[in-house]
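Cont'd.
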Amino acid sequence: MTSLTVRFAAELDGFSLDVSFEAPGCGVTALFGHSGSGKTTLLRCLAGLEPRVAGFLQVNDEIWQDDANGIHQPTHRRAVGYVFQEASLFPHLSVRQNLEYGMKRVPASQRRVGFDEAVALAGLPDLLERSSIHLSGGERQRAAIARALLTSPRLLLMDEPLSALDERSKQEIFPCLERLHNELSIPVIYVSHSLKEVARLADHMIWMEEGRIRAADSLQRVLTRMDLSVEQGEEAGAILEAKVALHDDRYHLTALDGRCGRVWVSRLDLAPGSPARVHIPARDVSICLERSGGSSILNIWPVVVEDICEHSASQVLVRLRCDGGGDAPRLLARITRRSCTMLRLKPGLAVFAQLKSAALIDY
Amino acid sequence: MPLSETDIQAIWLTLRLASVTTLLLLVVGTPLAWWLARTRSWLKQPVAAITSLPLVLPPTVLGFYLLILLGPDGPVGSLMQDLGLDTLPFTFPGLVVASMIYSLPFMVQPLQNAFAAIGNRPLEVAATLRASALDRFVTIVVPLARPGFLTGMVLAFAHTVGEFGVVLMIGGNIPGETHVLSVAIYDHVEALAYDNAHLLSAGLLTFSFVVILLLNLLNKRSHPEMFR
Amino acid sequence: MSRELRFFVAASLLAVSQALWANSVTIAVAANFVSPAKAIAEAFEKESGFTVAVSSGSTGKLFAQIVHGAPYDLFLAADSRRPRLLEQNGRAVSGSRFTYALGELVLWSPRPGYVDSRGDVLKAGRFNRLAMANPRLAPYGRAARQVMEKLEVWGELRRRLVQGENIAQTFQFVASGNASLGFVALSQVYATGGSGSFWKIPSGLYQPIQQQAVLLQRGKESAAAGAFWRYLQGDEARKLIRGMGYGVVMEGLRDNNAPE
């Protein structure tokens, strides 16, 4: 389901932006790229905060901008929620007044997010009457998220909402973002330069470089694209969606079932059936031609070699497709070039992937 | 020693002049300060310089040019006459116009600084929260720039009360119309009526002190912390 | 500049000014008399070899400065009251006071033919505003008021009067066209080339505007100050003064204690 259509082209103070992509009308789309790649500029264009940039923007069935046909809604007429990098609460208003600021400006008939709902989601019930200048960084950012939600946006834009926060504050916000993801059906565009954040939160990914789109696809597919993976270096890896299957209390392990098969990880404190997202770094995946019996490695899956790409002078990156046809998840393995030659790996070869580690991302 | 009737009249006239001037300056100065704080036009620096001119120009220079400009032979004066209006020198409206020009920087500069200190971010935030431009100005800019408004108004008022050179040049010393406090004090001093001069001067001094003190106290209390 | 050099320059300047002081006279002149004073000073310098420094300001300000110890040798006021006060409180040399000029009042308009030679324009009253100097502060203002009172138009014209703080400002009101006509000094009309139209007010309509001078205590011992004080009373100076639109007191009628 494609519900966000975006085209912008502009020359801005020595920076050229030229993007065209579509994104799903639900879930979290990560807008990823290094600093200076134009992520924030693109986000500001979506919100109408760059009035000089012409282009086309359709959100679901509404056209917000179509300069060729003289349509250019100003920011305050676009049903966007925008969470800035710094929380930017209004210092002259209390937390409650901040939350109500946007809500009051949306007609009651169009409000789809309840005040109590947003307050609970952001964990703010005890802070409402405080002055906004006396909140911690994490509290401020949570209030800003709730404030944006209360305008019942059709598109929620978040510009690195975690980057200005310390680790502890980030841990406060993550649950809030995840509840947002799971409980509200508002499409989110989430700007980040941290793969870790993206891997944890996003369903869809737009990879930007120098004002242009390099990839726009599901998180899975973007992360296992060879050209992009090579650039990620040590961070290269795959993301797998799974569910908690069972716990083995004797060995203190938990089994997760995904589309590639079962994966054992260290004991998790999650009820069976809970969703979990797993990151499998390429450096921790090895390849063997037969299912080896005497291995210390618990997780061994049958896979098919799909693509091989040079990673460095001594190493190659191999993309592996799990059993289950064309849209089955992919894994990445980083092995030596020597091993690749010795094993005679080539696309189409059926092999086994050994997962030395699998880290749960979510908790 | 009681105040003479002329002196009381001068005090009232001065307060009236300062109030009218301050209110009109608020109306004129706010958009000007807003424009100066936000524009990237090349005109910004020239306009800012013109606005600040009364700070450095001797009031008599200003008064002299106003006398010529507003007089019946001057461009403004002849235009007014063509429109069937009275010329401005020697009238209360004339003093208001002169005081507005003279006190303009005292209103505009605090406002401009206050507006600039707010920055763009709160306005962008408010726009994403559905606030229109006017709404943003009223609900965000005005409360955040409150110390600037307070300072600008008090300074413009106090500066108009203390204005002398310009009034001297275009006032014509008409009781109840242009005979303001500072001119009254000057007259007393020139006429060697030091007792009357002392009375009015001490009053003006006390007034100015109280105004500045109140301003500092109020601004200390209402100054919002930096926008975070 | 090095510190030594700076000290040297400062020291030399001090020395030069000391030397100048000995051969020079500093006079405080009422603003309306600056041009004649400079002309007289120039002629005096040529004749005597002394140098003259002229400071000017309103009579009231100069008076206040002198009372507070300003370094003037001679005071040329625009009235007789301030010199007399200085004489009374001992800041001026007793008996040195004399009337150096008589102010001549005229009713003037920059428009030719506007003011008639009898001042009927005042009675006709077909004008917008009439400028005069503040009668409380300026001798010319007081004289103007006396004239209007004598002509019995004071009550009628009062509402159309605008007052300058001094006679220079009054002239400015009229010259800029903001007042149609005004009572100004003849010397001002002369100084600007005598353009427009004016009525020289008969001296019987107002008490003489005596501009008096006194020798100040600081100038008592100064040869230069004494010389200038005498020169100001001489024929050369009187001719210059008359040529610039002032009257002078007839020789022999000079009355140092003329009543106010």
